[in-house]
Amino acid sequence: MLSFLRPHRHDVLIAVIGLLGGLLLWALGLHTQSGRDLVAPWVCLLPLAVVSALELVRRTAPQTGLVVGTLALVADQFTIGNLATVVMFTDLMYAAVLYGTPSAARRIPVTTFLITVAVTIGFLAWFRNSQALLIGIITGVVSFGPAITGVSVRNHRDAAEAARLRAEQTTLLAEMDRAQAVIAERARMARELHDLVANHLSAIAIHSTAALSLDNPATSREVLGVIRENSVEGLAEMRRLIGLLRTGDADAEPSASPTLDSLDALVEQARTNAGASGLTCTFEDTREERGPVPAPVELATYRIVQESLTNALKHAAPGPVSVRLGRAGSSLTVEVASVLGRRSGPRAPGSGAGLVGMRERVALLGGTIEAGPVNDRAGTRMWRVRAELPATEGNVRA
């Protein structure tokens, strides 16, 4: 309702100019027709006033304006006529196509074309001379011309709107891709940071707690040596990671990616760190094939073993911690098992981020992982992490 009460300022301007122009033409005695002596000259101002008022609703009620405007144009033919009335009617025709419904935009050009053809044929049959063609041309200029112009402008406007929506959609998709890439990169950085540092910090936490509770200077010195070794190695890993994250840091030397051949050294280090906790770490390599393994799979396997050993150092009860590596065909299997139960002495707190990181690594490569309590052959309750990863390039998920 407010749209009718407050027309667009351009529509108001068109209505005012059309009305004043029509009044000026009437005052100057410029008419479009003659031989209308039976009708008072001022009557032509009535259709002029009607189409001027209709210009105010050319955007808000274009089809209504066209219907009423057509009646006003027909009435104008029975008066001395006013050129401004005809011109404003062509604008109503144009607005009905441009601002009307899609069905009206399709229907009006076809209707006006048929009317133009019918008028031309009818007047040719009536007058039987070239004057009929002139009437047909005028009819086409007044009706079909504005309608087809409106179709062209509407198509361009719709195309521009579609292009704008596509651009917005592309921008939105690009932003979503960027956000997902940032999230994925942050998750990868979190996994790397956790895997690189958690093992050393866990060992430091456990051994420092033990050092505080021991009175034997020799044992304390040995424990402090382990603490120092882990702190130095952890600090070196942190520096390498920070160096890689800094853009343009020419001094940053990326560390070599861990491989399956490094697992024995990793288990040996865990054996040293876990000695004070009563854990004995062993490594068994039962691979039937020693062929090359994709680098991402080697890295994931190393990190799974590293995190599993860290968790054993934090939570496992005194006893064996076994690491088994196997390969059969296109599958690489890694298994880490430790005694499940409570232990006395120092323990490091856990947050569960390690298990989440392991599952993420395995899922990214298209493998499977299981983590939970099981019973070994002797009936001992064990905590086992078992992952199966693709061992060939063709099976690794891109």
Summary of the model, kept short:
By secondary structure, the protein is α+β, with helices and mostly antiparallel strands.
What attributes does this structure have?
398 residues, alpha+beta, Heat Shock Protein 90, five-stranded mixed β-sheet
Q: How do the strands and helices of this protein lay out in sequence?
A:
Blueprint (H helix, E strand, L loop, with lengths): L1 H4 L3 H19 L17 H10 L7 H15 L6 H17 L2 H26 L3 H83 L3 H29 L17 H12 L4 E7 L9 H21 L3 E10 L2 E9 L13 H13 L2 E8 L5 E10 L8
Parallel strand pairs: 1-2
Antiparallel strand pairs: 2-3, 3-5, 4-5
Helix pairs in contact: 2-3, 2-5, 3-4, 3-5, 4-5, 5-6, 5-7, 6-7, 7-8, 7-10, 7-11, 9-10, 10-11
Number of domains: 2
Largest sheet descriptor: 5 strands, mixed
Choose one word for the global shape: rod-shaped
Mean pLDDT: 82
Notes on the structure:
This protein is an alpha+beta fold and 398 residues long. It has two domains: 169 residues, no CATH class; 141 residues, Heat Shock Protein 90. It is 63% helix and 11% strand. A five-stranded mixed sheet has the order 1-2-3-5-4. Helix 4 packs antiparallel against helix 5. About 2% of the residues have low confidence.
